[in-house]
User: What shape does this take?
Amino acid sequence: MKELLKKYPLHTLFILTYFAIFLYAKNAHILTIDVIYRPLIISLFISTFVLFCAYFLFLKKILKAGIWSSIVLFLLSNYGFIYDYLEKLYYAGYWPFENIHRYLILFFILAFVLAYFVVRISRYYFYNLTKLLNVLIPSLIVFNLFFIIINPYYREKESKECNNKVTLQTNSPKPDVYYFILDGYANFKVLKNFYKYENDTFYNFLMSNGFYIANNSYSNYYFTYNSLTSILNMKYLDNNSFISMYDNFVFRAFKSLGYTIFTVNSGYTVSNKFLCTDVDLNKEIINDYERTILKNTILRLDDLIGIIPFFRINQQLSFIKNFDYSYKSPKFVFAHIVCPHPPYVFNRNGELKPTNSFSDKTWDPKESYIEQLAFISNEMMKIITKIFNSYKDSNIKPIIILQSDHGPFFSHKNYEIVKYCRTHILNAIFLSNKDSLYQDISSVNTFRYIFKYEFGLNIKLIKDSMPGLYELKENRNFLNLYN
Assistant: This one.
C-alpha cells in the first residue's frame, strides 16, 4: 500500500471530488442526495482528462504530471472564491481594478506556466509529497462524508414526506389554478414613477383579458423564501414556531380537494422539492447546488456571458409553454420564474446579451432590468394566451395568478422610495369573483381570497401588514441603496 501511495497520483483524481463533497456537506440540511451524482461523475471525468493530458506534457513522468495537475485543478476549482475576495476588496477600496476577471485570468495563466516549469525542471521525484496528498485528500473526503451522515438536519430532510392532513370539501366548481411567481417584477406604479417605463402593453393585455390588477398591492416579506413561505401557508411567519414552505398549506389544501399538483423546477433550492408535488415538469434543470459549484470554479467566467441563467430560464419557459393544458382537471400548476431578477442575460427580444454585472444580486443598470422585464412580460403574454385558448370550450374558466415575490432593489437617496420599490409588487389575478378584491391586498391573502370566494370555504382574510420590514431594514444590500 505504501508503494502504491508513492507511485500513483491518486490525489489528482479526488481533488475535484473533494471540492464537490465539501460544498454539499456545508449545505446538507437543505439538499437531497440526488443532486450530488452528476457533479461527482463530471468531476471524475475532468480530473482524469487533465491528468491524461499532463502525463504526455511531462513526457510520461506520472508523479510530476500529477502534482502539476492537482495545482491546476485546485486553482480552477477555487477561481470563484478568489474572485469574490477580490470583489470585496474592490468595493472596500483596496483593489483598484474594476475588470477583475481580466486580471484574474492573467494571474492564473502565469501561475500555470510557472508551476509547469518549476515542476518539470525540478530534480525532486515527489514520492513523499505524492504519498502525503494521496492520504490527505481522501481523508478530507471521508471527514466530510461523515459530517453529512451525522448531520441531523440532513436525516430529517430525507425522512420527510407530504403531510397531507388537511381535509377540505367544497360544492363549488374546481377550476384549474395557475400560479406564476415572477421574481423581482416591479409594481406598475414603480415602473412608471421611478424607472420611467410605461409598461402599457402588458398592463393593457392583462386588463383586456379580464385580470384584476391590484395596483397598490405589496408583499409581506421582501426576500423570496420568507415571502413564498408566507403566501403558501396563508399566514405571517412566527419566530417561535417552524413553518415549512416545502410542505405548505396551499399544496396540501389543493391535494385534499382532489387536485393534481404540478411544479416547474426553478433551479434554485429555495423553490424546489415541494413535498406534495405530483409531477415535477423539468427535473433535469441545473439545480442550485450545481450553480454553487459553477460559481466557485473557473466556470464563474460565465458571469461575462450568462449562458447558464439564459439556458435555465429558457428551459423553464419551454416546459410551461409545452405543458399539456388539456390534462384532466382539476390541477394546480406552480412556477417560480427567476426573472426579471438579475443576472440580466436577456434583451427584450429574448436574445442572449453579455451581462453588465458580475453578480446575480446586483440590480443595476436599470436599463438592463427593463430589458429583461420586457422580455418576461412578452413571454407571459404568450403563455396566458395559450392557457385561455385551451379553455375556449370549457364551462369552467381557470384561475391565473401573476405575482412577484418582492419588488426590485432600486437605488435612491430617499429611504421611502427604496422601501416602496422593494415592497410593492405585481399582483394580477384572473378569476370569476372579483367583487371583493381590493387595490392594496397583500400577498398573504392571495389564496385566502381564492379559497373563500371561489371555493366557498370557511376561510377569512387577515389584516394586511408588512412584518418583513424589520428584516429588510437590517439587510446590508438594502442599506447600501440609499446611504
Observations:
- The first strand starts at residue 177 and ends at 182.
